[in-house]
Each structure stands twice: as C-alpha cells, then as structure tokens.
Design goal:
heterodimer; A: alpha/beta; five-stranded parallel beta sheet; 29% helix; globular; B: alpha+beta; three-stranded antiparallel beta sheet; 15 helices; 8 strands
Chain lengths: 621, 366
C-alpha cells in the first residue's frame, strides 16, 4: 500500500470551493416532473359519479359522497355522487386516474399540506372552473400556506391518457352480414356473438351500474353480464327474466337506453349490453326445460289483457308469477304485437318472438289470438268477466302526410305488416319513403330488399328517403342511418312533401318537395316551416309514408271512451299504479309512454303489475 | 472469560432498520449471533390475497423500501406467467432500463448507508445527492420518487416522456464522472480498506450452503446472476459482465456492488441504443375488476440489486391471488449469512458487516 493513498481522500477538499448542490427550499423553486402524482383534481362536468375510482382504490381512500344540488340524469349516465379523498389513506398510485372512464380525475403537482387540523385530510376534489378558492394564481399562491385547499392553478401532473387506460374502450365487433349480401334478402343481419366473443365483451363491464338506472325497466344488467362472463348463460337469463320476460325480443330490438348511459361510451364504445342479452337468450335453446321459473299459486283472480305486445306479454308474465289467471287477446295470429308486424325479419325474426311468447304461454298464460276486442269480443263483457283489464294496444294506425294525392301512397305499418306476416308487397323500381324515423328506415331498407328480390340484376332500382329533419336532427338512430347508407339508400334530408304528382293514368310519377326552413319552433315543439318557392321534384313510382302512428281506441264503447282522459301529449293518462281514468282498467306501452319502445313498455307493465296486485288485494271479494 | 448477552438494535445507530441481533460476547469478540426479525411484519403476503391482481402493485413495491421496482417487476412477471401475457419489445427494454436505474439508485443508497455507518459523511452526502438525481429521473418517468408503481402486467404504465433518454444519459454521465472521487475518498481509501478488508469473511462453500446470492456470492468469485442464467426482459439483448471478487470479505462485497453499479450504467447506455424507437410499451390486459387468471402456479425469479429475488404465486381462477410468497435475498443474508459472518468478529464491526451484506430489514418481514 503506497503512502499517497492516505492523502487521496483529501481530493474531496476541492468541493469546498464549489457551489452547494442542496436546494434552498422554499426560496429556490423545485422543478417537479410533469407526471407528478400529487393531490387529486376532478372535473365535475365530466365526472359521472360512476365510482370506478372508489372501486379500484387499493386503500379504500376514495368514497363516493352524495352532493346536494347536483343534477341526476340517469338517461345520460350521470349520478349526483362525487369522489371524496381521504389523504390519510391515499398512496398516490394513480390507479384511479387510469381507470376513470370519463377521464375527469387527474393528479396535480401539488403535494404539500400544512394544517393544524387532521380532518382537513378528507377532501372532495374539484377543478379550477368550480373551485376558484382552492386553485390560486401565481400571484396569490404562497408556499407557506400550501395545503389541499391552497394550490396552484393549472398545475397538472399525472393525467388520464386513453392509450394507457386500464379499461378496454373498444367493443368486440359484432359479426354482421355484409351490406352487399344482406340487401339482397331478408337474412338476419346481426349474426350474434359466439361464446368467446360474448365472454370477452362481458369482461369489459366495469360494474358501475349507471346503465341500470338508465334502463326504464331497471334490469340487473351488471349481474347478468357478469353471469355471461362467468360462462353461465342460464343464470344470466334467469336474472334477465326477473325484470324482462321477453329477452329474445329485447336482445334484438331494444332501444338500449342503457348503452347511452354506459360509462365506457364516454371515451370509447359502450358495452354491447343488448347483444349480450341476445347471446344469453340464444344460448338457452329451450326455455321451458332449462329455466327454473315457476308460476305462483292460484289466487282465483282473473285479468284480461288486450294486446300481446311487449307490455301485454310482460304483464301477463308478471301476473302469472303472482298466481293470477291471465288471458291475452290479440287480433294478430301470434304474439308480439307491433314487434310481430313492424321490425323487418332481418332484424326481428318471427322464431325469436315465438320463443318468448311460447315460454310465457307454457307458464299457464292463455292466449286468444285472432280475436279483436270490440269485434269478436265485447269490451264491456271483458270488463265484467275479469277482475281487472289492461290495455296494451299500441299504436297501430299510420299517419298520412295528407298532401295532394297522398291517398295513392302506401302506409308504413301496413307495408311492414304485409311483408312480415302477410303477402309480400309488389314494390316499384323507384321508391320514395317519407319520414326520418326508425320506422322510415325499416320501410326503406325493406323496400330495397324487395326491389332486389323482385327486380334481380336491375340497376335502375332506387330507394330514397325524404325527411323534414336535416342530418343532425334525424330522429332515427345513427346505426340505422349508417346501415341504410351502406345499403345504398339515398337520403334527401330537410325536404318536405308538397304534392304527390300523378301521370295521366293516375299512377304515381313522383313527389314534389319543398325546402324546410325549420322543423321545430322556438319552444322545441314540432311545427315545420318551409320555403314555398324552393322545390325539387323526385321521380318515383311508389311512395310510402312513414311519419308516425297513433292508437286506435274504436273498440271502446262510447260511454267509456268519453271517460278516458289523455295527457297534453295525447297519451292515455294513468296514475302511479298504471290505472287509467276508467276504474279497473289499466294501461301501458306506446299509448302511455313517449319513448315508444319495448323496454319502456316492460317498465309500464311492471308498474301495472304492482298496481293490479294492489288493486286486487284491496278489492273486497 | 465470562460470556455476556448483548442486545444490538432495533434502536441502534448501526442498525439497518427495524431489526435486531442478540450477541453472545466474550470481551469484544462475538461468540454467537442471533438475528431477530419481525419488527416490521406487515402481513403483505396475506394482504395480497385480499386485493385484485392490479391493486397489488402499490402494495408489493412497499415490501422493499430501498428498491421497490424489482418487487413490482417480479410480481408482474409472475402474473404474466400465470395469465400467459407477452411483453412487447419496447416494453421489455423500458422495463430493463427502469430496473437498471433502480439498481443504480439502490446501490447509491447502499453506499450512503455504508459510508454513513463508518463515518465517511462526505461520501454519504455525495451518494445521497446522486441518488436524488436519479430520483428526479424516476419522478419524470413515473410521477413518483420512491414508490413508482410504474410496471403493470404486460409492460409499463407509461412510455418514456419526450427527451427522457437524453436526460437520463446526461444524469448518468454526471454521476459516472464522480466515480474517481468516490474511489479516492471511499472505495480505495486506505482507512476504509483497513476497516473492511478481511472481516466478515464468507467462503464460497458457506455462501452456497446458506443460500447467499447476489453480491455476497459474487464476492466469493462466483458468477451467479439471474440476468445471465435465466434472461428476462431485454437482458438477453445486450452484452454485460458479472463483476466478481475473490476474498469474500466485507471489502470485496462492497467493491462487487460498486462494479455492478458501473456495469449497470453501461448497460443502460447499451439498452437505450438498442431500444426500438417506436412500438407499444404494454400488452393490453383485461378489465381489472373482472380479471380472473386461470388456475395455476408460477415461480419466477429476477436479479434485484441484492441478488436473486423469487416469487411463488398461485391463482385459483379468481380475480385475486390465492397465495403469494416472496423469496427475498435479505432473508438469507440478514439471518443465516449474517449470523455466520459475525462469528469471531469484534462488536465494533457488527454494523460494518451488516452493511456489507446489504440487508434491508423490510424485505425480511413481509
């Protein structure tokens, strides 16, 4: 060992003459990394209150608390709850940020908290927009007061990033028949998930249950999705049956309000809740043999139901489970009501409808098809024979535009009904459909299929849609519009019909249209105005009107008809038990609600089922 | 001479943390040493059974306070093995760079502890400062300075931020430039040599018999490194040496650590050069709330700064682990090897030997 090595350490003396490396905090500022995981910040406008942050928090530092005065919007998936942080527990891992579906929660670079009170550790984070007290500008900020409630504004740290989100934003694509193939026939368009696809899609569910509040019938969605994920379609279907006795139907044509509320939908695709319901229903081949659902014990009460549509079917099922004797009357040869006649076969095959109806029948519900109340059986007789009567008659009469020569046009519901359960209609080579709703889409898409079948290899065939509404306000769903476009249906939005033009023989030659100025008035009510001078002429040899439908109450005797009261929106007025202004008569479905869809009809049936149960138990024997 | 019982720790300046040793001494010679762990038992392995696969990340990293990253790594590796997830190429490199950064930071911390213990305060302060520079890098990359929670099964949670690698290279050059000063004042300082050379000798046979790993084994001349034996992540993509020493004493162990640190810095440079410039850094894993991992068990191991780290993880098909058990290097070093190494040494060298074994008490009690 050389002697110099004892002197070697003295080399360190040179550092005496260098600047200190220590930061003189807080007089010298500390530069903080851009991904710093400090205190939380939450954008209340984006936050839905779904509670996924609370669920993933490993330390249970996050609790969802109800905020007074915050608006609840179930249909948009908004709750009045917001996360509250307990910084005594938080470990600043940032999992809450990566799971947050709307991306409202983020972490800031602030991490200092100086306070005498330990209660201040509990904090409901907001952002700069709502909480100007907490977030101070550069001038107002003082490091000596730094705390959870004294922070720098726009001091963002660890932020949500879709590329690294913990949830799966993309939906498992539903296999469908290609547009060029499907438009040639009535083949069912949606093929349905197979087992692996369904399990994968079900696995995306975050179980925040926003959907359950958005669903009019409040199905236990997260439970039945979880059962599919666990590969137990039977349990899934039984869970569905608790609230929805027509899963095969709803699994195909439900308007899926749940999917609009899905928290995944905010920054990705919503969970395919409808298709998963269909998967559960399709997996069970024979409901009667496999499901363990039993009707209740006989109560001796009798209920008559008019109309075997979604509301009638559901009510029959619910009442049967309560043990009442139920008879359903319908003028059609089978169950389903508007579902049987309306939605085209490529969307709603008859076998699927019969599967649901037959199961309900197998539970002991009596169906009297081909029986029109008011013609084959008297309403008053029905009323006297039963302990309660339910009207779920739906809207069965199409409106007409009533422009000149409109009597030459076909009506949407009749057109759809004939094609589905009657004789296929002969269509023209150039069809014009008036209307912009889902019924108009059905009509147009059915028309193009019929054209392909009736005029094979004819390239001149054309189906056009004329709607009052412009692209952005079309009442039809985006999916329907997209699929119609894929099938080469032409759109003429923002044109209103002026006159149906006839040739010398009295046949349709085309439609004269006028430009729409506005569809709704300043109160948002439907009241179209037109530029009378701006017109176009659309050539066509067939015109179908699909502008809406109404109910037919002609079966009611005049005395009762007078008693039946309506709301301002021309809906049958019912009380909280679903009873109309006629005693003993309950109502539901399209004649009551304004959603005009199956799942709302089920919700009405649930109300009526409870109402009838209450009514029957209170009624003296 | 009369035998005395001496309680060393847990409240003792020369102790590595919440840990104690009961010494039987004759004069100031140690006849027998009994290590007493358990002061820091937090029930992590049991707690892990209550939390979902994803929620366990903020937990596992806390098992080793000084070097949380290899705990995250081994846990992700075990989950990946159970669930059959592959890490994308860029993710592998990112992980390796991240873990080598952790190794350097941990070794600097070790140098601080050792130097501080022996009273080399100047060096201790340098080591702490240089570790802090690396923590700044960690903060920029992950958002946290100590518990990074940066890894996830299938890769890492975020890609490198813009310009990160340049900054990292600059920082490492800054630290590397101080190596001659470190050598002069600490590693090759005659005073330090006098205190560390020839004490706490563990022969290779003893080391192997007692399950010593990492630098303790390397100090006996054995090239044993999981990164070479069972390459994981990107370690099979780069050339690197395993520095060894011959004597098996405290001094050799510290030099093995120093050389390992220098090797790591070189490896980071090589990894940065070879790293794919683009690509995914992680493989998507299922929804954390519904992630059920198929039944099975996995044993994985990696080379942490202290040596071979193992994890035995069992899944019974649920969304939580059924059982987790860590095989941590400090367990062997802090209990069996330490007891052996202390025999016949002087009381004044207890802290010295313990530091050279690089024991981290939290790792012993999980």
């Amino acid at each position: 060992m050389s002697k110099t090595s004892y002197l070697n350490p003295f080399k360190a003396i040179k550092y005496l003459f260098k600047k200190p490396q220590t930061l003189r905090y807080p007089f010298e500022t500390l530069e903080i990394g851009d991904r710093c995981r400090g205190f939380h910040k939450n954008d209340w406008e984006k936050c839905t209150g779904c509670g996924n942050c609370a669920d993933i928090c490993p330390n249970k530092a996050i609790e969802m608390v109800k905020i007074d005065g915050l608006e609840v919007k179930p249909e948009e998936g908004k709750k009045d709850e917001r996360p509250q942080l307990d910084y005594g527990r938080c470990c600043f891992c940032g999992l809450c940020v990566d799971i947050c579906p709307p991306g409202s929660l983020s972490l800031t670079k602030d991490f200092l908290h100086i306070h005498f009170d330990t209660d201040t550790f509990t904090f409901i984070p907001k952002d700069e927009k709502l909480d100007k007290e907490t977030y101070k500008s550069e001038e107002d900020y003082s490091i000596f007061q730094a705390s959870i409630v004294h922070r720098k504004e726009n001091y963002d740290g660890f932020s949500p990033d879709m590329r690294y989100a913990l949830f799966e934003p993309d939906r498992v694509e539903m296999p469908e028949v290609e547009p060029d193939v499907r438009k040639l026939s009535f083949i069912e368009q949606v093929i349905g998930y197979n087992k692996d696809e369904a399990k994968k899609e079900a696995g995306r569910c975050l179980e925040c249950k926003l959907c359950e509040e958005a669903c009019p019938a409040h199905l236990k969605i997260s439970d039945y999705i979880d059962a599919i994920y666990r590969d137990d379609p039977k349990e899934s279907l039984e869970t569905i049956y608790e609230d929805n006795p027509i899963p095969s139907i709803c699994g195909r044509i439900c308007m899926a309000h749940c999917e609009d509320a899905c928290s995944l939908q905010i920054r990705g695709d919503s969970l395919a809740i409808r298709w998963l319901k269909r998967y559960a229903a399709d997996q069970i081949k024979n409901f009667k043999e496999e499901l363990e659902i039993h009707p209740g014990e006989h109560t001796g009460k009798k209920v008559g139901i008019i109309g075997a549509g979604p509301s009638g079917l559901s009510l029959a099922y619910f009442l049967r489970l309560q043990g009442h004797e139920v008879v359903v009357y319908d003028e059609l040869p089978g169950g389903g009501g508007i579902i049987r006649t309306g939605p085209p076969i490529y969307r709603m095959p008859l076998e699927a409808i019969d599967k649901d109806v037959n199961y309900i029948e197998s539970l002991g519900v009596e169906f009297k098809f081909n029986t029109k109340v008011g013609k084959d059986i008297d309403f008053e007789k029905l009323l006297s024979e039963n302990d309660a009567v339910f009207m779920g008659i739906g809207n069965t009469i199409s409106f007409s535009t009533r422009v000149k020569n409109s009597e030459k046009c076909a009506l949407a519901l009749d057109f759809l009904k004939d094609n589905k359960i009657g004789e296929q209609r002969k269509v023209g080579k150039k069809v014009i459909v008036i209307g912009g709703g889902n019924v108009a889409m059905d009509v147009a898409r059915e028309s193009i299929r019929l054209q392909h079948i009736q005029y094979p290899d004819d390239e001149s065939i054309k189906t056009k849609i004329v709607s009052l509404e412009d692209w952005d306000e079309l009442p039809a769903t985006d999916v329907e519009v997209k699929e119609a476009k894929e099938e080469y249906i032409r759109f003429n939005p923002a044109w209103g019909p002026k006159e149906v033009v006839l040739d010398d023989n009295g046949n349709i030659k085309g439609l004269e249209c006028k430009k729409v100025k506005s569809v709704f008035d300043e109160n948002g009510r439907f009241s179209p105005t037109f530029y009378e001078d701006k017109t176009i002429f659309l050539k066509g040899d067939m015109i179908i009107e699909a502008i809406g439908q109404r109910a037919d109450f002609s079966f009611l005797p005049e005395k009762l008809n007078e008693k039946l009261e309506f709301t301002k929106r021309r809906k049958v007025k019912v009380d909280e038990n679903g009873m109309t202004t006629i005693p003993k008569v309950f109502a539901g479905g399209d004649i009551v609600n304004i959603n005009l869809d199956a799942v709302t009809a089920i919700a009405d049936a649930k109300i009526a089922a409870q109402g009838i149960e209450k009514y029957l138990s209170e009624k003296p024997v | 001479m009369r035998e005395l019982k001496l309680f060393y720790g847990p409240q003792h300046l020369g102790m590595v943390g919440n840990f104690s040793i009961t010494l039987k001494v004759e004069g100031d010679r140690i006849v027998k040493a009994d290590a007493n762990p358990g002061y820091l038992h937090r029930g992590f392995e049991k707690l892990m059974e209550q939390r979902t696969w994803m929620q366990n990340f903020p937990l596992v990293c806390r098992i080793n306070v000084v070097e949380p990253d290899h705990m995250e790594l081994i846990y992700s590796m075990a989950v990946e093995k159970l669930a059959g997830i592959e890490v994308p190429e860029r993710g592998k490199y990112t992980r390796s760079i991240f873990c080598e950064m952790a190794r350097v930071a941990s070794h600097l911390f070790g140098a601080w502890a050792y130097a501080n213990m022996l009273g080399f305060d100047t060096v201790a302060n340098w080591a702490m400062y240089h570790r802090d520079l690396l923590l700044d890098m960690f903060e920029e990359l992950t958002g946290a300075r100590v518990y990074h929670v940066y890894l996830r099964p299938g890769g890492v949670r975020r890609d490198f931020p813009n310009g990160f690698t340049d900054k990292l290279v600059k920082t490492l050059h800054k630290i590397g430039g101080k190596v001659p000063d470190y050598n002069a004042t600490f590693f090759e300082n005659s005073l330090f040599k006098k205190r560390a050379e020839g004490i706490g000798v563990v022969t290779r046979e003893e080391a192997l018999r007692m399950g010593a790993v990492g630098h303790t084994l390397k100090a006996t001349g054995m090239k044993y490194d999981i990164r070479k034996i069972e390459p994981y992540d990107a370690y099979d993509q780069v050339e690197f040496n395993i520095p060894t020493r011959k004597n098996g004493d405290a001094y050799s162990r510290l030099l093995a650590i120093r050389d390992d640190m220098i090797e790591s810095v070189h490896m980071i440079f090589k990894l940065i050069d070879k790293m794919p410039k683009k690509g995914a850094v992680y493989t998507k894993t299922p929804n954390p709330f519904k992630w059920n991992i198929p039944k099975g068990e996995a044993y994985v191991r990696c080379e942490s700064a202290r040596g071979e780290l193992g994890l035995y993880l069992v899944s019974n098909g649920k969304n939580k682990p059924y059982r987790a058990h860590f095989d941590t290097p400090s367990y062997n070093h802090g209990l069996t090897v330490l007891e052996k190494a202390l025999e016949g040494e002087s009381i004044s060298d207890v802290g010295n030997i313990m530091m050279s074994l690089y024991v981290v008490a939290p790792e012993i009690d999980r």
